[in-house]
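Researcher: Please translate sequence to structure tokens.
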Amino acid sequence: MSRLAGRVALVTGSSRGIGAAIARRLAADGARVVLHARAQRDRAEAVAETIRATGGTADVVMGDLAQGDAALDVVRNAFAVHGALDVLVLNAGGGKGGMAADMPVETIDAVLALNLRSTILAASEFARLTQSEAGRVIFLSSGMATHGAPGVSIAAAAKAGGEAFMRSLAQELGPRGITCNSVAPGCTRTEMIAGQSWPDQVVPWTAQRRLGEPEDIADVVGFLASDEARWLTGLTIAANGGLITTAANILARAK
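Model: Translation complete:
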């Protein structure tokens, strides 16, 4: 496929998991991909090599998005690789969980910096730099942004804030032909949940009775990055396999 031929895409947090799958998908669609990692360059280079091995173009930039204005430098460095940037996928995220009342200020700041502040900085710098007439900004959110759960309150606030930012940014950048959307994955099989038993409890709550795979999310992002999604902006797409979340539905399913 070549629907992204000639376009340059930066995928943050793309050394593994969903980010790596997104980078591979965009490369398969013809984009020149710039991968990003915080510290493990070798892992990002390994993903880049798999892309090059199939005839794609891939480069790597480094930076700790939670530190100061590093997100600006990551976008600038990615732009400098090809002198252009058409697609920005804001996938990097995570951080320590815990009950809000037990979270020290330093931890709260770190979670917000990685999941929200870096999103704002990176997307704003993309908007300043890109000359693309088909620009795409895609934020990887989470089901926690809309469905409450204990132990994730700070990250949930950050993801919800990211979605709100994207909705308003879509209005600001729309006249330039740039779309801004969010994708909210459900429980997805990655290294982050490997070896844990709780994900198995989620399976019966999905319409398709399985966990998501990174490629399931990557395909949605690939669509949003393409011209076919030109009329979609300011949206959050729940890529969760029909996950049910209300107590009534859970009880009904249990019966």
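Researcher: Any highlights?
Model: Residues 40 and 129 are 27 Å apart (CA to CA).
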